Amino acid sequence: MAKRWTNDLTHTDVTPQSVYLNRRQIIGGLAGVGLAGALGSSAKAAGDLVPNDWDTITSYNNFYEFGTGKDDPKRFAHKLTTDPWSIKIDGMVDNPGDYALGDILSKMTIEERIYRFRCVEAWSMIVPWNGFELADLLQMAGVKEGAKHVAFETLVRPEEMIGQKRPVLPWPYVEGLRLDEAMHPLTLMATGIYGKTIPNQNGAPIRLVVPWKYGFKSIKSIVRITLTDQEPPTTWNTAIGSEYGFYSNVNPTVDHPRWSQASERVIGGGLFAERQPTLMFNGYEDQVAKLYDGMDLRKNY
Ligand code: MTE
Predict the structure, then answer these.
(1) Given this model, what pLDDT does residue 271 score?
(2) What pTM was estimated for this model as a whole?
């Protein structure tokens, strides 16, 4: 099942990290045609953006379970035990159960996806993820007729996640997607960055990545996935509903009540780097705009 999605970002015109290159060869050997094909198809695309380096991606994080500072996740997330790990898949599925992560991974095709990542706080990065399509996992679980949404839940373990000792947010962190968003081939379950195991601060051992939505939709360290016919509650919407909606599609024309979303600060671009214009659906308009045909995006922020 060698599925792929054409990225418009690529490594081809940059000097990749040597560690990444080595790893890419290893993965290429394992995944065979799938990865080779994905790299080939991305090579013909624009390639004008450069992925952030490993240190930036893994040291400037939002993961409130470990504190609210950008460097807190890197400082405290090593305490999280990520093995063993299982994901409960329940609700409107044919095959509910507690799935060991290793069993899931043995059935999935790991691909590389270089995606723009745009936080609602108006900063952005470019991340070379490794992962599989959420659609493949949902297919394995067997989505029942009538299911309309997918709910996600992060682990609660205050002994290891020190930020959970305070009610900064309601725990567990929860997120949700409409079923068609979840099934979209861009929607990824990430287990790696730069071909290496995803670090704890980035959401180990498995997280969601929805590149056309603000970063907070991309929930980390997932332990539960529930298929439902109701729109599920989401953490930031529950915390401050007037500022964070269910959809949270990146949209430069709809400002956050307290700041503009028209442009973004590029992390790693240097102190005096110019802000860059934010793209509709974070640059994935061609692929996802049809999901929202006829919808008032100002109302459904
Ligand atoms: N997931 C959980 N469980 N807890 C969080 O605090 N923060 C979100 C999202 N996923 C968050 C989370 C936010 S606000 C962003 S911008 C991204 O993770 C940050 O991902 P990164 O640290 O890998 O850049």
Answers:
(1) 78
(2) 0.88
Q: Please tell me the distance between residue 26's alpha carbon and the centre of ligand 1 in angstroms.
A: 29
Reported as a pLDDT band with limits 50, 70 and 90, residue 48 is: confident
Residue 98, classed as helix, strand or coil, is strand
Q: From start to end of the chain, where are the E strands?
A: 86-91, 97-100, 111-118, 123-133, 149-154, 174-178, 188-193, 196-197, 207-209, 222-228, 263-266, 276-277
- State whether residue 277 is helix, strand or coil: strand
Q: Domains of the chain, with CATH numbers?
A: 82-292 (3.90.420.10)
Can you give the pLDDT at residue 156?
A: 98
pLDDT tens for each residue of 224-277: 999 999 999 999 999 999 999 999 999 999 999 999 999 999 998 887 888 999
Q: Which residues have any ligand 1 atom within 6 Å of their CB?
A: 61-65, 119, 154, 173, 202-203, 215-216, 218-221
Q: How far apart are CA 124 and CA 212, in angstroms?
A: 12
Give just the sign of the alpha carbon dihedral 240, 244, 245, 246.
negative
Q: How distant is the alpha carbon of residue 276 from its chain centre?
A: 21
